[in-house]
Structures are given as structure tokens and as C-alpha cells.
Amino acid sequence: MSTQMPLENDGVKTGHANDDFAWMEEQTSPWKDAWRRLKKDRVALMGGIVLVCIILLSVAAPLIAPYDPNKVEMAARLLPPGTPGHILGTDQLGRDMLSRLLYGGRISVAVGFIAVGIAMFFGVLIGLLAGFYRGLFDAISMRCMDVLMAFPYVLLAIAIIAALGPGLINAMIAVSIVGIPYYARIVRGTVLSLREREFIEAQRALGASNFRIIFKHILPNALSPIIVAGTLDVGWMIIAAAGMSFLGLGAQPPMAEWGVMLGEGQKLILVAPHISLLPGIAIFLVVLSLNLLGDGLRDALDPRLRQ
Amino acid sequence: MPDSAFLEVRNLTKYFPVRHGVFGRSISWLKAVDGVSFSMNRGETLGLVGESGCGKSTMGRLIIGLLAPTSGEVLLEGENVHAATGERKKQLHRRMQIIFQDPYGSLNPRMPVGEIIAEPLYIHGLARGEQAQKRVRQLLDYVGLGSYCMGRYPHEFSGGQRQRIGIARALAVEPDLIVCDEPVSALDVSIQSQVLNLLSELQDELGLTYLFIAHGLNVVKYISDRVGVMYLGKLMELAPGDELYSNPRHPYTRALLSAIPIPDPKVKRERIILSGDVPSPIDPPPGCRFYSRCPEADEICARESPELRELDSGHLVACHRVGG
User: Which domains occur in chain A, in start order?
Assistant: First the structure.
């Protein structure tokens, strides 16, 4: 034991020296740092892997789906999962559930990411300008955001769809409008604290234009909370879009979309629960994996949790 | 005083509004800088000292045009810094730079050091691509850092190294005047002298003019030709460095000097301990700002604010009780 103690100490020391050395060798950008921490977070990594698998399966749907998702086969209606030829069974029109799930994944995942992209773009822009310029623009835009936030989101989305007409694209636009204030708030708060920092003052002293200060210096530093929020939000958007479809306001029936499938199975839930259950599980898996990944990203990107 | 001073500060004043009450209806004014005048010659170092909150940092930011004054003007070789717009203003930014106190906050954490130093080159269109790289290497060399730093990020450097990076960034535009806003007060004592030496070497090499802001007289003594003492937004005393240290006239300066520790326990001296705290700069009373803590205060001090006047050549004091 007595010989182990100094050895341990030495071990710690050399470990440190090696770390220092690695630190000298590698060029560590804050993003690489975050990636290194993320890799150590197993739960987040699992979420990421599941998510990547789902995305790959959805993208490859035309190659791997055994049937056309809309091919009606009246002789093979309501087959339970496990039936040879239809591993996940068929629905009330004899359409293959597996094929429909795979094709539905394409739409749901794409809608989730695109809706977040739209919401993020406008939200970040409004947040950046409001936080940087303050004054009248800040007051007006933030009150508008408050109004948007004060509405129950489903009601607001329904109102927007009522104005635009039902359909997948309009449902997507509706849920992204609902998502804008979320980003605008986060970004504005971050910008308010960043604009007082000395490195921004240094840019002003150098005579940099506001455009340059906002996009080259403030935005990269405001990015990590946006990325975390965005990851968590994709799941929310998928649920919201599926919800709209379930209510008949989004994607329309023959289309293979998870929300539509959920809605179609509703009437047969006691006879053939798998028709609703399977798309429900798919949504659950995607959203869960996104949330796990998002939580992991938050820990990895948050400098306050850094050792 | 020659009328063609390099930098002239005339009656500079900055009040910040402080809102309180319902809907911020009632406003009081925080008088950060209140009617300060002085001038600087090319190539000299003017030290500016005072306690925290006396307005010395605000002063530095006013001079380089980061803040707009409430009244008064700053003239750089006759040109009003705050009246310039557009291209003229950009040119003035090239001539005046600032080095900040906090080496952790003054560098963009998401930008590699090479980029940080190249930013001023891009902003003013001084160099691009290969040429910019060369210039950055040269600037790093000036401040005693190798070109290996270029791809690294600020968090990989120590406080002293970061301060050097900040200096390199300020030097990139080849300025004439650099406002040093407490550049060493966040550093270890051993590093302080390195950075101070670097600053004075650069001054000799490049003919820079420094406005050196600090909160203690000992740091300023080392580097300054002339020293100004500020208290609550006013300039109390301004004199050549040696003169100020050997013959301080203002009671506040004397108190500050007596507070510098002497590393010899045998030396006996009279310490002037000021009672109380610095009063709030929000809506200060008329009269001398130092009245509430001055050991020599008289009734005239409560009524009238003393003007800064010249006692001996180059030695200016704002006090009713000095030099009759």
C-alpha cells in the first residue's frame, strides 16, 4: 500500500502532463470540446444513434419498404403484427404497416426539421436585432412575441390553418410560426448579455460595422443555446404536426403520415390496436431520442458545467 | 501649454440617467465624469488614477468615442472626435485604440487568436489573405508570442498571454493613442511587470501615446510621465509624475500616497486614513466632491466646487485649501 500511494500521485501527475501535452498538440475549438464531452454522455449518444437510425430508415424507405405504402389489398385487411409477408400487420384497407411507417417517417422527420428551421431563422433574426438595437424595435417585436406566446399553441395553429387552409405545408407553417417566439426570447436574452461584453466593445472601438458585430461576433457566441433549443424543439414540432394531421388539419388521409395513421386507427383501437399503436411508438421513439440528445448537447455546450 | 496639443479634452462631462419610480418617471443623474479638462502631448504617458467608480474608465471610453459625452469635447489634433461620422469616424478609430482590463472578457471566445488579431485588418481593409497572415505573425512577434498561437482559442491562454493578444489587436491598426484601461490589474504581480515592460518597449519603438488608467498610484508611477488623480468624476490634481509623488498638494492625493505599502517594516510614517466610503455619484451635492471625507475641509468647500488651477508650472490642483 505504501508504495501505491506515491505511484498513484505520479499517475495523476503524468496524466495531467499528458493532458497538457494533448492540449498543446491538438487545436481545441470550443465546438470540438463540446463534441468530446458529448461522446462521454452515453444516454445522449444512444439518443443520437437511435435518431440517426430512424433518419436513415426513413430516407431509405423506397429501397427497403416491402410494399407501396398506398397499395390497397382488401383481402389482407387488419392483419395483426407478425403475419408472414406483413411483419407489422396491415391496416383497415390492407396497406402494409411497415411500409407506411417508413414512408411516414420521411414526412414527420422532414416536417420536424423544416419547421424548426423556419422558426429558428425568423426567431433568431428577431432576437438578434431586438437584443442588439433595443429601443422601439425591441419593444414592438417582443410584445408581438408575448401575444403569440399567450395564445394556447393548438388554438393558434388551428387559427393559422383556418386562414391558410388545411394541408401538410400549411400545418408546417402554422407550427413554425408558433415556435418563433421561443427562439426570439432565448436569443434576445443571450444578445443582451453579450453586447455589454468587452470583446464586443473592442470591435466597436475598432470601428466594425453593426452587421459585422452581430453576425461575426455575437451570433457564434449565441449559437449553443439555440442549437440545444432547436434539438429539443424538433420533437415538439413532430408531435405538433402529427397532432394537426390527427385533427384532420395537416396531411390528408391517403398520405402515409404518422399523425394521419394515428387518427385512422382511432376508430379501430379495440379491434386492431396496432394501427394506432405503431405510429404512436414511432413518434415516441423519435421525440425521446431527440430529447435525450438535446439534454446531452445542453450539458456539453454549457460552459458553466465545464470542469 | 502649446495650443497644438495632441489630444485635448475640454470640459468633458458624462451623465448617465438613473430611472426609478413607476415607469421610470423620476430620473436622477449619475455624474460619472463632470467637467474634466486636460491635454496630452504626442508620445507621452498620462496616468489616470482613482478609486473604483470615480469615472476613469468612462473617461477612457469617452476619449476614444465609445461613449458620447453629455457635453464638452475631445479634440485629437484639432479634430472633434464625437462630431466625426462615416469615413472620418472610421479613420479616428484607426488612430485611437483601447486595451481592456479583463483579459477573459475582451477576446471573442469562439474565434481563434489569429482571426481576432486579423479582424482590425479586415475592418479597415489593411490586408487580406496571405498578407494579413504575415502581419498577424509580425504583431504576435511584437508582443512576444509565437505564430503557433494563431490557430488557438483564447481559453487556451493565461491572463498575461491574453492581455498580449489584446495589445496585438490594438496595435494592428497602427494607432497613435492607446487608452490602457487598467490593463494589469487583473494579472498576477509577476506578470504585471512583464506587461508594463512590453507596453513601454512598444511606446519607444512605435512612438505611442498612452492614457494609462489604474486604481493605484504604484502601477502608474512606473510608466507615467504625468499623473492625474480623479475623484467622483472630477480631476483633483494633475502633475508630472515625480512632482506628484514628491510634492502632493491635494489632501486626497496625499491620502492615496500614504496608502501605498512600503516593503520595509522599520519605516515609520504618518498614514492618512480616510473615514467613510466614497459618496454616491448620483446627484452629488454642490461644493468640493471630496468634502465629506477631507481632513482639511472648510466651509467654503461645502459651498463651492474648486476650480483646477496651476500652482507651479505644470502642477494643477483643484482645492480651496492649497496655495491660498
Answer: 33-305 (1.10.3720.10)
Q: Which residues of B touch A27 (CB under 8 A)?
A: 112, 151-152
> pLDDT grade, residue A120 (50/70/90)?
very high
Q: Which of B23, B64, B98, B110 to mutate to test binding with chain A, by most A CBs within 10 Å of its CB?
A: B110
Q: Say yes or no: A196 contacts chain B, CB-CB below 8 A.
A: no
- Locate A208 and state its grid cell: 466594425
Higher pLDDT, A37 or B165: B165
Query: Which are the contacts of A252, defined by CB distance < 8 A and separation ≥ 6?
Result: A166, A167, A168, A260
Contact criterion met (CB below 8 Å) for B136 and B100: no
The whole-angstrom separation of Cα B170 and Cα B149 is 17
| Contacting residues for B210 by C-beta, under 8 A, at least 6 apart | B44, B45, B46, B177, B178, B179, B180, B199, B203, B223
Domains in chain B: ranges and CATH: 7-317 (3.40.50.300)
- Among candidate residues B225, B182, B218, B181, the one with its CA nearest the CA of residue B200: B225
The C-alpha of B72 sits at a distance from chain A's nearest C-alpha, in angstroms, of 20
List the grid coordinates of B96: 485611437
Per-residue pLDDT at A264:
84
A184-221 confidence digits (pLDDT tens)? 999 999 999 998 899 999 999 998 899 999 999 999 88
Q: Model ipTM?
A: 0.85
pLDDT tens for each residue of B160-169: 899 999 999 9
CA distances from B41 to B4, B8, B9, B19, B82 (A): 9, 9, 12, 39, 20
Buried b / exposed e along A262-292 (16+ C-beta atoms within 10 A): bbbbeeeeeebebbbebbbebbebbbebbbb
- Phi, psi of B19, deg, nearest 5: -95, 135
Residues of chain B with confidence (pLDDT) below 50:
1-2
At residue A303, the pLDDT reads: 55
pTM more than 0.90:
no
**C-alpha cell of B276?**
467613510
